[in-house]
Amino acid sequence: MRYVAAVCDRRKYLMERLHRLEQLYVENPVCFVTFCTEDRKAVLAQRSVHEAFVQFCREALKRNVFVGRYILMPDHIHLFVKLPPPSKNLSDWIKSLKNFLSKVLRSSKTAAPHWQKGFFDHILRSTESYSNNWLYMVENSVRAGLVTDWSQWPYQGEIQPLRLDERLRRSQTAAT
């Protein structure tokens, strides 16, 4: 059993790490993904990292991996991504992305390790969920005091417009 540390009321507790689902029963879901740098080091908000991120995501189109909106904060990345089945592709793709960005960080003399283990992902179930998560993402730069208006943050964008799978929405409507 694997455990992660959680801090609550200034005391440290150990709690079981959540496990990924073995299978998804949705074709091509859109996922909201977040991953952080090791010790939340502020190393991502730089032009070279942003350019490498965009390059990697554009190359991913050749493998039917579609990155929608994204934002690179100094110590973490939020993005929307749609991958072909099977669901294990998400873990493999995030690992590849982290490795690709680590090469850029090493070339800029940023010492490893660069990334926290794992990542957070959430399958979007509605266009409202997509919009709410996007607003949360872009307002990060304002909440962090990096800009006064989210549109001023230079390390964000959209690689490919994403749509939620119509079959997913119909099946959810029928289930409720």
Give the tags.
Alpha-Beta Plaits; two-stranded antiparallel ribbon; 176 residues; single chain; disordered C terminus; 7 strands; alpha+beta; disordered N terminus
Please explain how this structure is put together.
This protein is α+β, with helices and mostly antiparallel strands and 176 residues long. It has one domain (21-165): Alpha-Beta Plaits. The chain is built from four helices and seven strands. The protein is globular. The N and C termini lie far apart (35 Å). Residues 1-15, 20-25 and 166-176 have low confidence and may be disordered.
Short recap of the structure:
With 176 residues, this protein is of the alpha+beta class.
Number of domains: 1
Can you tell me the CATH topology? Alpha-Beta Plaits
N-C termini distance = 35 Å
* Rounded average pLDDT: 81
Radius of gyration: 17 Å
Helical percentage: 25-40%
Number of helices in the DSSP assignment: 4
Question: How many strands, what sense, and barrel or not for the largest sheet?
Answer: 5 strands, antiparallel
What global shape is seen?
globular
Number of strands: 7
- Spatial strand sequence of the major β-sheet: 6-3-5-4-7
Query: What is the H/E order?
Result: EEEHEEHEHEH
Parts with pLDDT < 50 across at least 5 consecutive residues: 1-15, 20-25, 166-176
Which superfamily, in CATH terms, is the homologous superfamily? Transposase IS200-like
Can you tell me the CATH class?
Alpha Beta
- Class inferred from helices and paired strands: alpha+beta
CATH architecture descriptor name: 2-Layer Sandwich
Strand content: 15-25%
